[in-house]
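wait is this the right file?? whatever heres the structure
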């Protein structure tokens, strides 16, 4: 697959539908036209990311950018982040934590678990969209080796 064909799917895990629509609207307004796979809870999102067998092999050749809310109805976002970063097929996927929580300990915990960026809502959508564009560009020029 040539770099121009590498499509990054944005996986948005956000239970507040108003926030989800606002995030998507601003991503589109910024000129980012990637597919967005939206999930309102952690269980469904992990099913998509890890597959039916839970191994994550389903995501082995996907290029994903994960937007993760911490406050979900069925599980803590930190648990989802830990499972993503512990999985051999997903751990290189960038995760942007996008949440209302601005507690310094929670922010540090997310970075310790492997978050690439922590953004507090309400966000500056221009900076947010720019970060997404840069991560998309990263995917378009860098092929992450599967067995590194």
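ok assuming it is, sequence goes like this
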């Amino acid at each position: 697959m040539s770099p121009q064909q590498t499509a990054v799917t944005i996986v948005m895990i956000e239970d507040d539908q108003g926030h989800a629509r606002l995030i998507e609207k601003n991503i589109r307004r910024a000129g980012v036209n990637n597919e967005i796979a939206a999930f309102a809870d952690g269980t469904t999102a992990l099913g998509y990311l890890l597959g039916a067998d839970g191994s994550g092999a389903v995501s082995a050749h996907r290029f994903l950018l994960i937007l993760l809310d911490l406050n979900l109805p069925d599980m803590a976002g930190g648990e989802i982040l830990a499972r993503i970063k512990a999985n051999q097929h997903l751990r290189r996927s960038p995760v942007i934590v996008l949440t209302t929580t601005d507690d310094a300990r929670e922010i540090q915990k997310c970075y310790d678990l492997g978050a690439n960026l922590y953004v507090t809502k309400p966000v500056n959508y221009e900076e947010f969209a720019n970060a997404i564009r840069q991560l998309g560009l990263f995917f378009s020029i860098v092929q992450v080796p599967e067995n590194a």
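DSSP finds five helices and five strands in the chain. so i think its the right one actually
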